């Protein structure tokens, strides 16, 4: 998605969408594990979400 819009002048809104998706994913996983978002990310590290979204971007860019 971000690769498709790489020439767009509205990159700021794309970063906002990416932030919202990451936060939503973190909240969902934290709730599943009966934890807060902060505690969940502290325990597993924020790299977990970074790695997931990086892999997704590579798949979409093919």
* Tally of DSSP helical segments: 3
* Strand percent estimate: under 5%
Please compute the radius of gyration using only Cα atoms. 13 Å
Helical residue percent? over 70%
Q: What is the structural class? A: mainly alpha
- The total of beta strands comes to 0
The stretches of 5 or more residues where confidence is low (pLDDT under 50) are none
What characteristic shape results from the CA principal axes? elongated
What oligomeric arrangement do these chains adopt?
single chain
Number of domains: 1
Following the backbone from N to C, one meets helices and strands in this order, namely HHH
Mean pLDDT comes to 73
First-last Cα distance: 11 Å
Major β-sheet profile: none
Describe this structure in words.
There is one protein chain. The chain is mostly helical and 62 residues long. The protein has one domain. Helix content is 73%, strand content 0%. It is elongated and about 40 Å long. It starts with 10 loop residues before the first helix and ends with a helix. The mean pLDDT is 73. It is found in: Plastid. It comes from Bolandia pedunculosa. InterPro entries: Domain_X (IPR024937), Maturase_MatK (IPR002866).
Brief descriptors of the model:
single chain; 62 residues; mainly alpha
How would you briefly describe this protein structure?
This protein has 3 helices and no strands. With 62 residues, it is mainly α.
């Amino acid at each position: 998605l971000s690769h498709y819009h790489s020439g767009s002048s509205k990159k700021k809104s794309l970063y906002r969408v990416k932030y919202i998706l990451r936060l939503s994913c973190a909240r969902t996983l934290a709730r599943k594990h009966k934890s807060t978002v902060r505690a969940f990310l502290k325990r597993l590290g924020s790299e977990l979400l970074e790695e997931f979204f990086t892999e997704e971007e590579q798949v979409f860019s093919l």
